[in-house]
Amino acid sequence: MNIALLIIIVVAIVLAIVGGLTEALSWLLWVAIIVGVIALIAFLLRVLRGGTRT
Description:
Blueprint: H1 2-49
């Protein structure tokens, strides 16, 4: 009985960690998309204004 309880606890912990990582990755994906859009807008503004190359 103790082994079954231990297995259930380990499975619950693993599922909780995987669920948390999935939420974190989803959030980071949205952050990456937003940062990419901002970088694209900044690049287009620089090209349109004829910014100098460095």
